[in-house]
Amino acid sequence: GKKAGVPWLKDSVVGRYERPIDQIYEAAIEVLRFNGAIESENSINHSLIGRIDTRRVWIQVLEESPTITRVEVQSRSKYGRPDVDLASEVEKQIALQLR
Question: Does the pTM exceed 0.85?
Answer without folding.
Answer: yes
